[in-house]
Amino acid sequence: MRRTSLKTANCPVARSLDVIGDWWSLLIVRDAFRGLRRFSQFQKSLGLARNILTVRLRGLVADGIMELVPASDGGARHEYVLTGKGRDLLPVLLALRQWGIACFPDGAPWGSELVERETGRPIRKLELRAEDGRPIMPADVELRVVQTP
């Protein structure tokens, strides 16, 4: 079944999902934040078939989320690294992680923790803030439809 493209949708969420709405794509980006760079590393981490991984990586490169660069060890192979657009996905992944921990607690260890690289200290939970910096709750937010001319 062919999926419908949302690239021209009049909604930033829909347009974003057109690029990263596939779970494998987000997991590849997650692994890139963990330091994985090579095809074989992504395949081992995700247990994903080569053909599916190839398609997802090509898509992430085509959409400017990742780029293919020469191997850092000078070898003949290439590596996948996040672009600025890809690195900007960090808050999205962190929000999904926080939501998953809060809404789907199963008692299992999470296998990772979020810490500041330089100090090793934990990172505070993401939270919504008003324009003036006040913390706000989801009930305080309204998503308004803006009429375009």
Number of helices: 6
| DSSP summary, beta strand count | 2
Give the tally of structural domains.
Answer: 1
Averaged pLDDT: 88
Order of helices and strands: HHHHEEHH
Task: Give the strand content.
Answer: 5-15%
The name of the CATH superfamily reads: Winged helix-like DNA-binding domain superfamily/Winged helix DNA-binding domain
Percent helix, as a range, is 25-40%
CATH fold category name: Arc Repressor Mutant, subunit A
Main beta sheet: 2 strands, antiparallel
Query: Which structural class should the secondary elements be placed in?
Result: mainly alpha
Radius of gyration: 18 Å
What best-fitting shape do the alpha-carbon axes yield? globular
Distance between the ends = 35 Å
Runs in which pLDDT lies below 50 for 5 or more consecutive residues are: none
- Which CATH class applies here? Mainly Alpha
What is the correct CATH architecture? Answer: Orthogonal Bundle
Strand adjacency order, main sheet: 1-2
Quick summary:
By secondary structure, this protein is mainly alpha-helical. The chain contains six helices and two strands; from the N terminus they run ααααββαα. The protein has a single domain, classed as Orthogonal Bundle (Arc Repressor Mutant, subunit A), CATH 1.10.10.
